[in-house]
Design a protein that fits this description.
The protein has about 350 residues and is mainly α. About 75% of the residues lie in helices and about 0% in strands. It contains 15 helices and no strands. The protein starts with a helix and ends in a 13-residue tail after the last helix.
Length: about 350
């Protein structure tokens, strides 16, 4: 893989996604749990959960967590890493709704600037933080607002287009995010960068679930329970070595996603109104499903800006969540894989996970 692609797209985006999980995503889940428990009565523990969730999901905290995650994934020296907290905070707040993309861009530049001077002088403890922070601050002032607006506008366009053409956009979004999830890039970071919520977020969840559940089910005969768990609750990226050897194994879960995407948007009208990062997580730790459920009760700020409202989920909402995320992708991928096995496109051992 090209070094540039690996460092700035694969590693940096993965680090950004982990920073989002450790702040915004966790904070939103904790806050929603506390808010729902508060309905049972007034207890200090429930109030504490809401406060803790608020602390973790504040924009400056989220920005700092993303930037530190990016720096850690890039392997920067300690002083650069610590200094990136200030850079990420500034970039995310200034970038507004499109803050995550601004953080990704600016944190990478600041990290590389800090790398250039790290341990090059006898006063490294002053020079490295100064260069990292000042570089980050300069690019924040010059670009963060514009990057944020561009990302937000594109995200708004995708959400608008999905509401206008749910069938076509359901297929497209499901396909793209699903493929991104299995490729060594971060679908979660992509969804977060463009603020994919609502029906668009639901389609993204569908596509990611199709890949994870699809590969887990269709490879069960080769990988048994351990493979089911590793791919279904971990990542379908584990199949990349096998996809390189035989790309045809990618057909069943991809076709499943093309079907479940529009089913999510047109039939069940499944919306993902939690933290946008959840849209690109699929069934990994059930984060995608938690995001959908969280969005029912406590829509994220981006989702609110897109017109979302809190709802009391009906049986149909729960049925849609189960069907789109688990039942349909498993059945469809298994059927498509069975056909491809019959015609010899998939052979025994093609889906066996490497040791």
């Amino acid at each position: 893989m090209n070094r540039f692609v690996k460092r700035y797209l694969v590693d940096a985006m993965s680090g950004m996604a982990q920073g989002l999980f450790a702040s915004l995503l966790t904070g939103t889940i904790v806050k929603t749990l506390g808010q729902q428990l508060q309905k049972l009565g007034e207890f200090a523990l429930f109030d504490f959960l809401v406060s803790a969730g608020n602390f973790a999901s504040e924009a400056h905290v989220v920005g700092a967590a993303m930037a530190v995650g990016i720096g850690f994934a890039m392997g920067v020296p300690a002083l650069v890493l610590f200094s990136l907290a200030a850079v990420g905070s500034a970039a995310n707040v200034t970038g507004g709704a499109g803050g995550p993309l601004a953080v990704l861009f600016i944190a990478i530049i600041a990290a590389e600037a800090g790398n250039l001077v790290s341990k090059k002088t006898k006063v490294d403890i002053l020079v490295t933080p100064l260069v990292t922070i000042l570089t980050g601050a300069l690019f924040t002032l010059l670009t963060a607002k514009f990057i944020g607006k561009a990302a937000s506008s594109l995200g708004n366009l995708i959400v608008w287009a999905t509401n206008l053409r749910p069938f076509l956009m359901g297929m497209i979004i499901s396909l793209i995010t699903g493929l991104a999830l299995t490729l060594p890039i971060s679908s979660a970071a992509i969804c977060a960068a463009f603020g994919l919520t609502g029906l668009a977020g639901g389609a993204a969840v569908a596509g990611c679930c199709a890949q994870m559940v699809g590969f887990a089910v269709m490879s069960f005969r080769e990988n048994k329970v351990s493979g089911l768990i590793a791919q279904g609750l971990g990542t379908s990226m584990l199949q990349m070595p096998n996809i390189i050897k035989n790309p045809k194994i990618w057909i069943p879960p991809t076709l499943a996603g093309l079907i479940t995407g529009p089913i999510a948007t047109c039939i069940f009208k499944m919306e993902m109104n939690g933290a946008a990062v959840s849209s690109g997580m699929g069934t990994c730790g059930f984060v995608g499903q938690i995001g959908v459920i969280t969005g029912w009760f406590n829509p994220s700020q981006i989702a609110l800006e897109h017109g979302a409202q809190a709802i009391s989920p009906s049986f149909f909402h729960w049925l849609g969540l189960l069907a789109v995320c688990f039942i349909l992708p498993g059945i469809l991928s298994w059927l498509f894989a069975l056909i491809l096995r019959k015609i010899g496109w998939i052979k025994e051992g093609d889906l066996t996970l490497p040791e």
